[in-house]
Write a structure and sequence with these properties.
The structure is a single chain. This protein is an alpha/beta fold. The chain has 3 domains: 38 residues, Arc Repressor Mutant, subunit A (Orthogonal Bundle), CATH 1.10.10; 43 residues; 195 residues, Nucleotidyltransferase, domain 5 (2-Layer Sandwich). 44% of the residues lie in helices and 8% in strands. Strands 1, 2, 3, 4, 5 and 6 form a 6-stranded mixed sheet that branches. Strand 5, helix 10 and strand 6 form a beta-alpha-beta unit. Helix 9 packs parallel to helix 10. The radius of gyration is 34 Å and the shape is elongated. The two termini are 58 Å apart. One of its GO terms (molecular function) is DNA binding. This is Tc1-like transposase DDE domain-containing protein. It comes from Venustampulla echinocandica.
């Protein structure tokens, strides 16, 4: 059975308190003021006594302490420590006494999380990193900071596959209820059987490198990669050396064809300097972000692709659209990447 309220009295509003005090100052008696507001004389007298000694009375309610917090500061810290250790725990599980010392509601958990700047969110998807590779990533970042490299002199290179019908851009539509299935409000996809085009390219400083498309139905191999370097990259590399000086290097990941002896021999014979790259580190390379921008360009309506020929034609159109400012900004992001990967102890970073 619910608690029965024993009184129907209500609190005086700030306006009523002000009117009561004004009437008293104008000479009205407490009895007449009581009759006018239909309030007990003791209430009227209490209001007058409260404000008559104040030089400039204010009739607004003063801040009140409110209800005592459910969790004491020590209990809040205990709950927070558990959340930090086990961020995947559900709100229901966090309500148990084993987490904070008492049984609490999910709303209390939410309020405590908000107080400390935390909330339940979907986890970001990143490749799992081996502990040994995390150490290598930190060691590499620290050595790079000591070198103080000019990242405009790095030829960032990589391979990527563009799939038919792929559109990674975020699109919004303005519609009403029940209009979600109208053609104009849909984002179309195309059945392609995951057919795609393999591409190799690079950029250095503020210049895009050559665009090399892997023939249909074939994959990158050591022999093919050696041909790409000899025919396309090495001329570009020499031009970059004339532009930026002898400190120009090539960055490539640890794919098997990059490590092949024939490839290493070609780079050595051509006097191409190679930047050491830690394993499992695509997030440290700015060219990964460049691929995302190119995919966004391809995803726009006028560059919609439905077959391999369309992809190749769209890539040829998209290449000149990458501005020098974009490339310079990607290079400028490197010091931040180094700082974050050191701070994260070799873990994944936001890039």
């Amino acid at each position: 059975m619910g608690r029965i309220r024993k009184t129907t009295r209500t609190e005086l509003t700030p306006v009523e308190r002000g009117q009561i005090f004004d009437r008293w100052q104008c000479g009205q008696s407490i009895a007449s003021i009581s009759a006018h507001f239909d309030r007990p004389r003791s209430t009227i007298a209490s209001v007058i006594d409260r404000y008559k000694l104040q030089p400039k009375p204010t009739f607004q309610n003063k801040p009140r302490s409110g209800r005592k917090p459910v969790l004491a500061p020590r209990a809040e810290r205990a709950l927070l420590r558990h959340i930090i250790k086990a961020p995947t725990e559900t709100l229901f599980a966090l309500c148990s006494p084993s987490k904070s010392g008492i049984q609490i509601s999910r709303n209390t958990v939410r309020q405590t999380l908000k107080k400390y700047g935390k909330a339940k969110r979907k986890p970001r998807k990143k490749p799992w990193l081996r502990p040994a590779n995390k150490i290598k990533r930190v060691d590499w970042a620290r050595s790079e900071k000591k070198v103080k490299r000019d990242y405009n002199t790095v030829c960032w290179s990589d391979e990527v596959t563009f799939f038919i019908g792929e559109d990674g851009s975020t699109t919004y539509v303005t519609r009403g209820p029940g209009e979600e299935w109208e053609d104009k409000n849909l984002k179309p996809t195309f059945k392609s059987g995951r057919i795609g085009v393999g591409v190799w390219s690079c950029f250095c400083g503020d210049e895009m490198g050559p665009l090399v498309i892997v023939p249909k139905g074939e994959r990158m191999t050591a022999e093919r990669y050696r041909g790409v370097l000899k025919e396309h990259f090495i001329p570009f590399y020499r031009r970059m050396r004339r532009k930026y000086g002898p400190s120009v290097v090539i960055q490539q990941d640890n794919a098997p064809w990059h490590k092949a002896k024939t490839v290493q021999a070609l780079l050595k014979a051509s006097r191409v300097k190679v930047l050491f790259w830690p394993p499992q580190s695509p997030d440290l390379s700015p060219i990964e972000n460049l691929w995302k921008q190119i995919k966004d360009i391809l995803g726009k309506g006028k560059y919609r692709v439905k077959n391999i020929s369309d992809i190749e034609a769209a890539l040829a159109k998209a290449w000149p659209l990458i501005s020098k400012e974009v490339l310079l900004k990607l290079n400028a992001s490197m010091p931040g990447r180094l700082n974050i990967v050191i701070k994260n102890k070799g873990g994944s970073i936001k890039y």
